[in-house]
Design a protein that fits this description.
single chain, 244 residues, alpha/beta, Rossmann fold, 7 helices, 7 strands, 17% strand, binds guanosine-5'-diphosphate
Length: 244
């Protein structure tokens, strides 16, 4: 039988502040995933586990904020910037982990989930199918999934594959936040035009989705992303009882 939990390499283990098995520990200690200050505490992120098969996902618990994006869009850099850990998301890029769902525990007890990238030019059909099955099922049925961050290169956002992902998110009713990364590559004016165009298109393809500019290089958009993700992670998902 294949193993569900892949042990981190020695290098990753050295990065970890806690012991292997953090996933369970943090869920048990902070079941709601909310820190005292009500934010995600993205800065205290540690690698927890990797999963290659949706059937082997751990039981749902604290809120999960998942990051998705086309390969090379800047997803790993955005995760590293938001968590303040220079190499955190590169754990997901080590051989053998690129097609896995990688979980990182956060200081709040919530989880940051790095979904495998898509749109690799030379990816065989089997890899594409596995991505669709793994990510599709996670998005469609994961109870503890609070929101999905879709990372797009600001110079060419909303590619056909991004639109396919957004359609799934819309269908599943998932809270969605779009990061238009590498905004430093555009002039201020071009970046604003891109932002308005993306906002307009999103209002049709994924109504309710929010969008912002982001630059890992310049550190732009960090506060906005932090506050949006904290709000999405801890908002009440369930409709209030009638009469409230
Ligand atoms: P991923 O494949 O989506 O995880 O993308 P990476 O985070 O590995 O980034 C892909 C490339 O884009 C790398 O060469 C990064 O250095 C570069 N990159 C990522 N974010 C930014 C950014 O905000 N600004 C600029 N100028 N380059 C970036």
């Amino acid at each position: 039988m294949k193993k569900r939990i892949r042990e981190p390499r020695e290098k990753d283990r050295n990065e970890k502040q806690g012991k292997p098995g953090d996933f369970t520990a943090s869920r048990a200690t902070v079941a709601s995933g909310r820190s005292a200050s009500g934010d995600l505490a993205l800065q205290k992120a540690n690698y927890a586990l990797s999963v290659h098969d949706p059937k082997l996902l751990p039981p749902p618990g604290a809120p999960e904020i998942a990051f998705a994006g086309r390969s090379n869009a800047g997803k790993s850099s955005a995760i590293n910037t938001l968590t303040g850990r220079r190499r955190l998301a590169f754990v997901s890029k080590t051989p053998g982990r690129t097609q896995l769902i990688n979980f990182f525990s956060l200081g709040s007890g919530a989880f940051l989930v790095d979904l495998p990238g898509y749109g690799y030019a030379d990816a065989p059909e089997s890899v594409r199918k596995h991505w669709e099955m793994l990510v599709g099922e996670y998005i469609a049925s994961r109870d503890s999934l609070a929101a999905v961050v879709v990372v797009m290169d600001a110079r060419h956002p909303l590619t056909p594959l991004d639109l396919q992902l957004l359609a799934w998110l819309r269908e599943a009713g998932r809270a969605t936040h779009v990061l238009l990364t590498k905004s430093d590559k555009l002039s201020k004016q071009a970046a604003q035009v891109t932002l308005s165009k993306a906002r307009k298109e999103l209002s049709t393809v994924c109504p309710g989705a929010t969008v912002q500019l982001f630059s890992s290089l310049k550190g732009e958009g960090i506060d906005e992303a932090n506050s949006t993700l904290s709000r999405l992670a801890f908002r009440k998902n369930k409709a209030p009882p009638k009469g409230e």
